[in-house]
Amino acid sequence: MSEIHIPETPETEKKDTPENELPTTMPLLAVRDVVVFNFMILPLFVGREKSVLAVDAALSAGRYILICTQKDEDTDEPGPDDLYTVGTVAMIMRMLKMPDGRLKVLVQGVSRARIKRFLQTDPYDLVEIEPWEEPAALDGGPEQEALLRTVREQTERILQLRGIDATEMLQLLHNVPDPGRLADLVAANLRMKTANAQRILECQDPLERLRLVNQELTREVEVATLQAKIQSMAKEGMDKAQRDYFLREQLKAIRKELGDSGGENDEIEELRQALAKAGLPKKVKKEADKQLSRLENMHPDSSEATIVRTYLDWILDLPWKKASKDRIDIAEAAAILDEDHYDLHKVKERILEYLAVRKLNPHMKGPILCFVGPPGVGKTSLGRSIARALGRKFVRMSLGGMRDEAEIRGHRRTYIGAMPGRILQAMKDAGTINPVIMLDEIDKLGTDFRGDPSSALLEVLDPEQNNAFTDHYLGVPYDLSKVMFICTANMLDTIPSALLDRMEVIRIPGYTEQEKVAIAQRYILERQLKENGLQKGDVLIPDPVMIRIIREYTREAGLRNLEREIGAVCRKYARKVAEGQTPPFRVTVARLPKLLGQPKFLEEEREANLPVGVALGLAWTPYGGEVLHIECTLLPGKGKLILTGKLGDVMKESAQAALSVARARAKDLGLADDFFETHDVHIHVPAGATPKDGPSAGVTMVTALFSALTGRPVAADAAMTGEITLRGRVLPVGGIKEKILAAMSHGVRRVFLPQRNAHDLEEIPKELLRRVEVTLVNTIDEIWPHVLGEAQK
Fold first, then answer.
1. By the 8 A CB rule, do 720 and 699 touch?
2. What pLDDT is recorded for position 165?
3. What predicted TM-score, i.e. pTM, was given to this entire model?
């Protein structure tokens, strides 16, 4: 039973308030987990705004209020359907306003009542009620007397089992002869579920109500008896614990006399209790107990004791069972991804597929994703959005320039200053066993005499092995199978094949002009306004002006330079606001030179006519597409091939193949038989300080060479890409979208691609293809009629 509510105010001596004197309309107060009975006096804390208004209305109109219990205590704003229809009319005896705005009211139950109808629900509930008359006490004969005695005896039994002095309570119970009044008194102080208490409240027959209370008392006696038995058994078990405690206290006293610190023993006991509660796997628990036993026998000031203590702290700090709950609502996750990132349909589909599979199979292993794309396309921020969509913790690890294997696997404890690797440090920071860990710049891992970090990652990123990842410092298996690893890279060439095989590669290409405009208006401009102290709408950049910024001030696959330029515009107007000018400000094309300086990239830079021997080629780099001017000239000589421009081996071989194709067609070009024996061919690719490699410039080299041999210039609005064979066939290459974007930004209107790259065009937006004329070719001979002009005299 709970604490007995014995009123000390004169209200307890009043006669029952006649129901016909109660108002028929009054405010309603909804309570969560308590049922108020007649004559019951108890304090209530009122915090909901509607409830506060109801109390104020009751105080200003007779102090009567109907108290009804919610069917579900978790409902924050209960409506008429959320409340029981039978409640208790109560009188507000006292009211006190708390510092936090809540009210503390003291109420006394007056009469049962039923809600007939709700007159209003706003700003507070006002109801019309039907008071229930309490039937007059009748002589129920032996059955009534037996019920009264049983209820009193069981109440006394419960109080004795709970160790409560029953004298005052029993005296009070014996002074209540009415069965209904006794039932209400006991029910008000009995621990019951809300539904059971409401059932007793709704019972009008006093004798039947007393029977219901007797049933609850019988159950409570059984619970109290069993609880007392359990406590007795626990007390017997405590005898040994008390003996151990007494011996430990004696041991502390002996150590104190010997000069040893007693605080160390307390620390060991705390560690022992923490390890017992940590939920460690069996193997880990065994190793931890072993190290704790070693620590117990060491002198606390020894260096070895510090090492062991640090090791045990790491065991306790790592998450072993705690996991964050995945957000399995696919639609909500999709909305979060769309809110944070524009486009990127493939990536979003893959994440939603993972969520769907996770929903059907909660025990699936975490995927290993690798986002590959040029800088500034949102690879790192996408990982943070994925973690938000999943409802998981997010930890980012930068791997760029890492050369020590111990950074991944940790150092063995034999070394001074040893610590776990970055993987376990990330798990400690996350605090859960299923975070999203982003391994940034995985293509920039290095290797030296300290080992190969990429090889150490093989176990981490293998779903079949990482459920028992062993860190050198920890020395016991740790489960990484529930972690979602996301890697980012600018290129795949430097990633070892064994490591790449463990990852699911998702390519994120550069953005088109239309995509850049949409992202800038939706995300970048708003972010830069906030970072520069401006409000949304203070600076307006129309789409035509944004396009001009993209074309003339940036040339990139990503968005970093575009964000810098927009930030520069916002700073200029932030100064004007600080000087007292009133926003909004509208940016125009005419204002751009004053805001950002003269344009850095102009379409006029493109030559209207190319010299003989020059052709435009398209190349792919880790930072997006590039347009290459490949130059070829003929020199008197002995048939040598001169290559300059810091070309790689593959590109040199492409140049040699291009020369062989030209020599095989010497007669078709009308060249003398000894032409190539008396002339040297010099092929140069400008930007000589930048390394270049790959086979995709083969077609461009052949075209430039044919232009030099025939004296016919190549069209300045045409660019091409493709690998060349000795038979003149054009083979497919990669990076088609990036190359077309580069061609557009350079003002190229016609692009020649290998026929076998036709499927790559399906991934390119249609509005982009409408601005560029794409021609698919199988052989080099299909290009020349379109690009070679008339021979110069």
1. yes
2. 67
3. 0.57
